[in-house]
Design brief:
- It is a single chain.
- The chain is mostly beta strands.
- It has strands at about 1-10, 15-25, 30, 35, 40-45, 50-55, 60-70, 80-90, 95-105, 110-115, 125-135, 140-150, 160-165, 165-170, 175-185, 190-195.
- It has a five-stranded antiparallel β-sheet, with no helix packed on it.
- The protein is elongated and about 60 Å long.
């Protein structure tokens, strides 16, 4: 059972009427009686298979809508996406919102690559940092980092290091790529650093 949470905040200067339309995601079934809201009226519309909520929010006011859904037994692994719409009934604006849930699968979607500076001179050396966190429910395995060096950049020998996970970092001089191969368990983080 998964609890989906939507927080709506009025960042404007005036009160506004808002509505949430949140279809139950594919491969999930709504858990009866679980929809709730801190303000306004929230309900499950069985004919449209969606959660609906409506209220008036004062300037600066926030509300939270929650409901639970069960992953269908036929869905064994993958990512479930919850796509909803928030409607500003005062002016008609529709804002799409989405969240994802990894089911029995790794999730490395929060990966980032950072450089020690936004710009460098021709002979300058930058330190690159790649960070991965497995927010999924199973171990990610194989080639998890495969980073080609930008053109005009030369890898600094012996500058490659990695921490976290269980694997090996390497540099392929022919393909000019930094790699990390191994396993990264649920909740584990990996950091690969090199200079170029």
């Amino acid at each position: 059972v998964v609890t989906w949470t939507v927080v709506v905040r009025n960042t404007g200067q005036f009160a506004g009427d808002v509505q949430l339309r949140d279809p139950i995601p594919l491969n999930m079934t709504y858990v009866p009686g679980t929809v709730a809201a801190t303000l306004g009226t929230a309900s499950y519309n069985s004919a449209l298979n969606r959660v609906e909520w409506q209220t008036t929010l004062a300037a600066g006011q926030a509300a939270t809508v929650t409901f639970q859904a069960q992953v269908d037994g036929t869905f064994s692994a993958g990512v479930i996406e919850n796509r909803a719409e928030l409607v500003d009934l005062t002016n008609g604006f529709v804002s799409p919102i989405a969240a994802q849930l990894a089911v029995n699968s790794p999730n490395l979607s929060s990966a980032v690559k950072l450089a020690s500076a936004a710009q460098s001179y021709q002979t300058g050396v930058l330190t690159y940092t790649i960070r991965l966190t497995n927010t999924g429910t199973t171990t990610a395995t194989g080639n998890l980092v495969n980073d080609p060096l930008p053109s005009g950049v030369t890898f600094v020998t012996s500058s490659l290091s990695a921490s976290g996970g269980s694997g090996i970092a390497s540099y392929n001089g022919v393909l000019k790529r930094v790699r990390w191969d191994g396993a990264l368990g649920p909740g584990q983080a990996l950091e690969v650093r090199f200079r170029a």
